[in-house]
Amino acid sequence: MPILLRDIAIYLKRLFRLSEAHLMLLCAAVVGVIGAVSTIAFRDSLAGLQRLLVGHSGSLVEMAKVLPWEMRVLLPTAGGIVAGVFLVLAKRYAKEAKSDYMEAVVVGDGHLSVRQNLLRSISSLCTIVTGGSIGREGAMVQLAATCASVVGRIGRFEPSRLRLLVACGAAAGLASAYNAPIAGAFFITEIVLGSIAMSSFGPVLVAAVVANITMREFPGYQPAYEMPTFQAIADVEVVLFIGLGILAGICAPQFLRILDFSKRQFQKSGLPLPVRLGLGGLLVGIMSVWVPQVWGNGYSVVNSLLHEQWVWSAVLMVLAFKLVATALTTGSGAVGGVFTPTLFMGAAMGYLFGLGMQLLWPGAVSQPFAYAMVGMGAFLAAATSAPMMAILMIFEMTLSYQIMLPLMLSCVVAYFIARSIDGTSMYEIVIKRNQEEKEKLRLRQTQMRDLIKPAETVLPLTASLEDMTRIFIEHSAKYLYIVDAANLYQGVVALQDLTLILTDKQAHPDKTAADFLRHDFLPVITPEMSLSEALQRFLQHQGERLPIVQSVEAPVLLGAIYKTSLLDAYYRLS
Predict the structure, then answer these.
(1) Residue 258 pLDDT more than 80?
(2) Which CATH architecture group holds 238-437?
């Protein structure tokens, strides 16, 4: 089969005279269809398991409301234990290949373990269907990416093209999960690939669009969120949406810190994985006795906020309990996404902000659902460090130009506020990329004064032949730096200039360093020089070190700059 598919690809390439880029677009379209089908399979599996457990499928929140309190506690607990067992089984195949599609694209060769990801997806199914407070999109995207990896390996793609194909599969899965192909494509290019280059963005976009078209052909297609009509925003009210962006930028990093804190505490417990997931499910189940809205990813609650009137106390209570439930579920080690729970956090925060603005200026501001819609995007932009993706996702959901101005302002403000706090993100790959950018910025600003080391081979003009010989032997150096009484750099004494007379010191008893001085033999470095300027000096000399002086006009010797230190900083910058 692999050989047959490869032969078909070669035949089509020759028949239609396809370039590598054209063939990549064709493969991206195939992956788009497969990604959509895998998403539908996961969605239908959830519905089937719900019918098996309670006799019907639908909203997990509604499911929790009709269950007796004993079942609300028992189901998440049992689901967590079973999910943990599947995760333990999945770990047996951890050495086959990477399990996370982001790692496979960024630092791997695009090879994803099929068995491990299937077991992890089953684990995710068990957590979600029993009320775990986690998103289903994580498993959907991972499944689609795994399918893309299989297609690429069957086609014997080279690693660079296989990585791009896996990225296409992930975009297809995200577009299928949220019915937002443009945002899905931007998510992958902005977060995973790190840059929007047409050579990579083109195939990713094709996969996302084809996946969305495929989803529309299947029954049950509907927009991710049923958005109400967004009314035009008065000029003055735009300021309030900037305030909402500031609030989201402050709150999103705290949300991520809470998730990270919960994960660390569960790991410190030392409990076996099934017990940890069972404990997380138990605590979520106990909370659901009083607040059934903690079940699921928050999707149905967001739709309710957008279309129904809520009192502030109810929104605040659900927000607080949902935050704790999400932290418990993700912290215990459950497999799933936090993308949809993040949208819920933004919607609830925005709704509360809108209610507060109505109390301050009754009748002069938009309805709370407008702030909830913008809050979803702003919180998502701050949590993911991907403002462009967040803007496009909310726009695709609303298809309203009226939302664009407040949405763009809130998302951009939230992004910069969050980055100024600690540059965190819900995706580890983004955190690493931010750290690398900070390091590169620091290195770009590095001047030679930051790399100064002691010269060690420094002698005065009056140094004797014996002194020079001793320093050459002690340090295995090729050059001695010579200074005058005021420590002003005068030049160097080269070892090769002394080799002819070292065997007969008695013949030159009065010779000093001044007699062997080379004034302009070595280029000098000054403290304010940049990395590139200093590198040019080393290219002129081809030595291991160069002297650094205070300035050309006042050449006080400060020490030496070593080529290894310079190259190390330069390569980290490149």
Answers:
(1) yes
(2) Orthogonal Bundle (1.10)
